[in-house]
Amino acid sequence: MTFLSTVKAIAISAALAVSVALPAAHADEQYFPLQSYRVGPYAAGGTGFFGGFIDYLNLINIRDGGVNGVKLTWDECETQYEVERGVECYERQKSHAGAAAWNPLSVGIAYAMIDRITADKVPLITVNHGRTDSTDGRVFPYVFPLLLNPYSETSGIVNYIAAKEGGIDKLKGKKIVVLYHGSPYGKETIPIYELLAQKYGFTVQQIEVPHPGNEQQSQWLTIRRAKPDFVVLRGWGVMNPVALKTAVKVGYPVDHIIGNVWSNSEEDVIPAGDAAKGYTAITTQASGNTYPVVQEIVKTVYGAGKGNLEDKSRIGSVYHNLGIVNGILNVEAIRIAQEKFGHRTLTGDEVRWGFEHLKLDPAKVEALGAKDLFHSINVSWDNHEGEGYVTFQQWDGKKWNVVSDWIAPDWALLRPIIEKSAEAYAAEKGIKPRTAADAEAVAATN
Amino acid sequence: MIGDFDYQFFLEVLTGGLLSGVMYSLVAIGFVLIYKTSGVLNFAQGALLLFAALTFVSLVERGVPFALALAVTFAIMVALGIGIERTVLRPLTNKPPITLFMATLGLSYIIEGAAQLIWGTQVHGLELGIEDVPLEVGGVLISQFDIFAAAVAAAMVLLLSLFFRYTRIGLSFRAVADDQFAALAVGLRLPLIWASVWAAAGLVALVAGLLWGARLGVQFSLSLVVLKALPVLVLGGFDSILGAIVGGLLIGASEKLAEVYIGDYFGGGIESWFAYVVALVFLLVRPSGLFGQKLVERV
């Protein structure tokens, strides 16, 4: 190859690379800024979740040619689950036109972005996590803790324990220990456990495990002495397998430990080995690869060599399926908004409107190929969680098995508490709560 | 009231704390080896521990027999240790201690990144074939795995002590630790000794990595166990293997007892910082630690 032809080849390659890599703002593209984490302590969860999300976006592009012809695009910015990096990523990615929604999968990053995305009028999705009071769309117009907020999760767990004991009245006199991660995320549910304990007559003891949770001997000895009927594990990362191993070490029965939604993945149980057998955890989406939508991803996306997971054995894992469900919710919100605003690139505020009309009943969920993968969602302008149902899965040493029906948290009980907290936030920040009419008004541009 | 005091529970907490302390000592010993001979506080010891455990478990998962995986991982750790000494620390010889510390800090990030790049980010279970059902001794439950870990730590300390006392290279280590310039003057080859000590630290990282990996699962958080070793080093002294053991026992026992008996007064979750309170108090009273060498500088 001559020098000139080499230069020409490099120039063509560079031009191609730039055309692929540049965040072009075409009229028929909808962009997702992904603040992902594929290295660092929480990489296992990040690769699974963002892998599932991207797999679903790819499915829509390959199978359907996008959403009504609007291609879905995205780029990733590595956060390592660190708040400052997440904010850096936000600053870098926000200038891209056509941003549909932010999905950082991090409580810390989400908290840091609330004021910013509210000013930008672009939705922030915190599926299964985030601030509980952001459920109140009157005060948090752009934040969506879809499917499950921490209080609903707590209510779902207590309802499950009640069902195991034979009814809600059987909770009276029982003792529950909550072992929580020493972080704002871990402490979020302290008041609601106290409140439910008072309401149903059980006693609750809440014990903190300092971050990262790789030593829990003293906590579990305290638990053994307390002799609780159940332990709720509200963990994260390495804290979860260590909790299960230490429980066995002090002789506490693992089948009386109920994990929360961030203690429910394969990554939480596999490192614990045999100690995790019989452990049960709450989830909003079932694991496994038998659901039609997952099968389609395997056939269409992985078949085309565009699958995001390097390790294909992780297809259908808890985090991968959560990513897929998150993809479904984002895409359907865009589809709903397009029906009102047109089949084109939408503004962030138009996508917000789409999320606020995101209603997927079980029949619609089935039509999307996700029957039994998740139950349903019913988001409105003032309820940004959308009444997600939960189910419980038990680890048998190799895989999770669903062991309950879909359970509804006690939304009626929780709503006044959420509103009170949101109103306090509004007062502190000087926010005037929206009305339904305000929510219908949509900004024309970002 | 004394009469109401649950002695059995106290003993259980104390025993658990002492056994946890042994696990901290295992990590601390890796620091001591390097510090003793080269004066470098090797912050990358946690990353080495992660790298060793991840390499071992990845080889086993790819069908390599246990013993062969152990041997291959050991060889890799020795090569890595020698490589670090040659490429990072040797060029920085005679630089201020803070420069060397910063170099190992940077190194820890590079090793963590490389470990994930090579072996992936998935978490792994690691079974060493040790039952972890508790043994009941006089009404006190004791973890079989922790007893095994304590036995391994004791064996390692014994081996290292014999090595330092009776082998030529071990005696060279001690000579270098006492006075580098005098050691050079009598013809000891410092680069060879430093390479050997980094290889030894690699072995310690492998042993600690396997035991901690079996306890936590093999995942990124393994590298964070260095945070448990630091107060142990402050307490026991940075250049004493015996100090690492005694420091580990004291830190393990005190943090567990504090968590259980006074934790509630501070809202719980105090053990992670209580260890540093103990270390800080010792630092104020005895800056060189319980067994550390007192530095006397003539000015």
Describe this structure in words.
The complex is a heterodimer of chains A (446) and B (299). By secondary structure, chain A is an alpha/beta fold. Chain A has 2 domains: 24-148 and 288-378 and 420-440, Rossmann fold (3-Layer(aba) Sandwich); 151-283 and 393-409, Rossmann fold. Helix content of chain A is 44%, strand content 13%. Chain A is built from 16 helices and 13 strands. In chain A, helix 3 (83-93) runs parallel beside helix 4. Chain A is globular, with a radius of gyration of 22 Å. Chain B has 11 helices and 2 strands. Chain B has one domain (2-223). Chain B is globular, with a radius of gyration of 20 Å. In chain B, helix 2 packs across helix 8 (190-216) and helix 6 (168-178) packs across helix 8 (190-216). Chain B has 299 residues and is an all-alpha fold. Chain A binds chain B through residues 38-44, 46-47, 182, 206-212, 214-215, 217-219, 221-222, 225, 237-238, 241-242, 245, 248-251, 267, 270-273, 275, 310-311, 314, and chain B through 6, 9, 12-13, 16-17, 20, 113, 116, 120-127, 132-134, 141, 143, 145-146, 215-221, 224-225, 228, 255-257, 259-260, 263, 267-273.
